[in-house]
Amino acid sequence: MDFTLNGQDSSVTDGERLSLLDLLRDRIGLNGPKYGCGLGQCGACTVLVDGAPARACVMRAARVKGRSVTTLEGLADPVTGDLHPVQQGFIDGQGAQCGYCLNGMIMTAVALLDRNPDPSDDQIRQALRDNLCRCGTHQDIVASVRQAAALMVAR
């Protein structure tokens, strides 16, 4: 199966029957997407498929054939190593405590800011509503997304 992973052509054999999460973590060795609930309800496994957030734990790997998948590892600039503005915004805004939800929050925020570079707090909350944070850092997460939006405008 051929697909694009983090901007690079990728080919895997015998992985089409796996979940996308199992393919990414177990076969390819990427640890950005996390196993949380296994039911597509918590958001820890979120990746971008053709730029849209997708729950990798409930998506069969075969569904990404010929498509583009971006994980947390693929957000940083491959040449300079500079973090994506959303990654930097979460660092600057201290948007996580334990960090388990961080992958899903960041990936969902990237998709949000790509389609709406200046969202309101309500729009940020709406976009992130299906990503669960057990630590309760919701206000810091919203502030981090606002910080990321400002960084994206500045670059």
TrEMBL record:
Keywords: 2Fe-2S, Iron, Iron-sulfur, Metal-binding, Oxidoreductase
Keyword Disulfide bond part of the UniProt annotation: no
InterPro entries in the cross-refs: 2Fe-2S-bd, 2Fe-2S-bd_dom_sf, 2Fe-2S_ferredoxin-like_sf, 2Fe-2S_ferredoxin-type, 2Fe2S_fd_BS, Beta-grasp_dom_sf, Diverse_Oxidoreductases
Pfam families, alphabetized: Fer2, Fer2_2
Keyword tRNA processing: no
UniProt protein name: (2Fe-2S)-binding protein
Residue span, 2Fe-2S ferredoxin-type domain: 1-75
Protein origin, superkingdom: Bacteria
Coiled coil: none
Organism expressing this protein natively: Paracoccus nototheniae
Lineage: Bacteria, Pseudomonadati, Pseudomonadota, Alphaproteobacteria, Rhodobacterales
